[in-house]
User: Fold this.
Amino acid sequence: MIESLVDHSTRAEIDLDALSFNLNQIRSLVGKGKKILAVVKANAYGHGIVPIARELDSLGVDSFGVAFLEEGIQLRKAGVQKPIILLGGVFSSQIESVFAFNLTPVVYDLRLARFIEDEGKRQQKKLPVHIKIDTGMNRLGVPYDEVKEFFVNIRNFDHIETVGLLSHFSSAHLRDSNSRKFTEDQSKRFKRAVKIVQNLNFDIPLFHMTNSAAIIEGIMPELNMVRVGIMLYGASPSSDLEDTIHLKPVMTLKTSIIQIKTLPPSSFISYGRTFCTKKTSLIATLAIGYGDGYNYRLSNRGKVLIQGKTAPIVGSVCMDLTMADITDIPEAKAGDEVVVFGCQGKNIIPLGEVAQWADIIPYEILCGISSRVPRIYKN
Assistant:
């Protein structure tokens, strides 16, 4: 017995009211007068960089954080006028474009600072920059013990305007004693770096190190800017912090049932025959696969909502299709809506649970939703 419907209807529904709610929750945590840098890199964590940035712009955030030059240009071409900080830095070949689009690069070494100064001298223009201090992440940044030397070197650069000083926590989302000690050490290093720079008579208006996890934990409240990413989109930075603040998921990922089959016992399903029915089973083929961003590691591990009930994923996730066992949902039919994560009726599949099933982090789930999945914006 086969019932089928040929219709690829996977979509990501984006709730802009939830985005606004989350921003208000963040504002209530950080207090009045705190500048908010909204992180919209990686296509706004998969939510759509331009629509999300426009909405956040209308909600009054102070600036935007992107990873690379192309994202900054995309926002400028979309009409965003507020400061756009290039958190991933830039290459020397891109600096002319940084000036052209009035972007604000993060500077992490003297070599990059000299490239910017040379281009500014050539154009007779001054470029705002944020300087990143490496306090222990050991990724990008001026090494903590070289801060004084770096700022002495750039003191006479006339075409660089240092408008921000930042660093980045590596473990603020973790609550074990070693991680908390490391976070405390990073905080102390950044405070000392700020003091060194101020003693060199640099007048820097913005200081930011507090990310989503540090906002929740109340770390370094004295800094006048926060960088918020994952919290905006309604997810927690880690399972340790899930119950500490009420947020609303901004994205609900949905698909549909294409076909339903009744299979006898001992029927293998999907590539590699990794699942075999133990009894007569009702198997639904869903119009979603890893080509849409539904992670392959959810094979035989994930769950979805159909008719408000939970159905397990069975067999290997394919590029375009995935199978679910709906034996306990006999009323399901081809064309029915399937919620991959998010709410359906009174039930929910939290993003964090999906990430745990796949043994990855929520960030990867959101960023992995492919470009072929349409984003539908609602408020």
Remarks:
- The chain has eleven helices and 21 strands.
- Residues 177-199 form the longest helix (23 residues).
- The chain has a mean pLDDT of 95.
